[in-house]
Write a structure and sequence with these properties.
- The structure is a single chain.
- The protein is of the alpha/beta class.
- It folds into two domains: 10-149, Response regulator (Rossmann fold); 164-223, Arc Repressor Mutant, subunit A.
- It has helices at 19-29, 44-54, 70-80, 95-104, 115-127, 135-141, 143-149, 169-179, 184-191, 195-208, 214-223; strands at residues 10-15, 35-41, 58-62, 85-90, 108-111.
- Helix 4 (95-104) links the parallel strand 4 and strand 5.
- Helix 2 (44-54) packs parallel to helix 3 (70-80) and helix 6 (135-141) packs across helix 7 (143-149).
- The chain starts with 9 loop residues before the first strand and ends in a 6-residue tail after the last helix.
Length: 229
């Protein structure tokens, strides 16, 4: 893997609504001269504005910022500034949140309690285009599984979403019927299959589209024009 570090420090943006937290992050990052902090944001909207203005290579983003939270910022950057690599910081570690962050497009997910030990390692990894998974994530669901199911580099369209073409014709039909309000048993009767098979297809559809909630699947179907508003 080619190392992207050079004589020019990598530009980093910090986004956290707590001044003390930003000060601690700045002190930590300044211990490594290969990184240079180019700006600090206090909320999600300011983070997006500063990314556009300052063009950082990496954004270190707190997940619980006011206005637009870290997940909102990550999703928007994935669509509008895909070259910016996002590292999410969080106060409370959660497997579900970790998956959501990685699915949103974050390159790393680091607990604030582990930042002193892991943040610089995460920065160096994403700088060099290497995936970074904390030991907690690896212990919970394995690096390989996480990289496959929560892959921020999964092929996406210009809107930042995984294209509907990733689904087979039968999967699209099942998605349409489910999002149109049918139950799994009703869909099974409609297509001449079993309820269990439909439920398995539904799980596969959500895995392919990297979604965990059915409500997200419905919104996706509406955006794709599969079901009417």
């Amino acid at each position: 893997m080619k190392n992207k570090s050079s004589t020019h420090p990598v530009k980093v943006l910090l986004a956290d609504d707590h001044p003390i937290a930003r000060r601690g992050l700045r002190t930590l990052l300044e211990s490594d001269p290969t990184f240079r902090i180019v700006g600090e944001a206090t909320d999600g909207r300011e983070a997006l504005r500063l990314v556009e203005e300052l063009k950082p290579a990496i954004a270190v983003v707190d997940i619980s910022m006011p206005g637009q939270n870290g997940l909102d910022v990550t999703r928007k950057l994935r669509r509008e500034a895909p070259d910016v690599k996002v590292i999410i910081l969080t106060m409370h570690f959660s497997e579900y949140v970790a998956r959501e962050c990685l699915r949103a497009g974050a390159r790393a997910y680091v607990s604030k309690s582990d930042a002193d030990e892991e943040l610089l390692e995460a920065l160096r990894a994403v700088r060099d285009d290497r995936p970074f998974f904390t030991s907690r994530i690896t212990e919970m669901f394995g690096t390989y599984k996480c990289a496959q199911q929560c892959n921020p580099d999964a092929p996406r369209g210009p809107d930042g979403e995984i294209p509907i073409e990733r689904l087979s014709l039968i999967e699209r039909e099942i998605l349409t019927l489910l999002c149109d309000g049918m139950t799994s048993s009703e869909v099974a009767t409609k297509i001449g299959s079993s309820t269990r098979a439909v439920e398995q297809r539904r799980s596969l559809i959500m895995e392919k589209l990297q979604m965990t909630a059915f409500s997200d699947l419905v919104r996706y179907a509406i955006r794709q024009g599969i079901v009417p508003v």
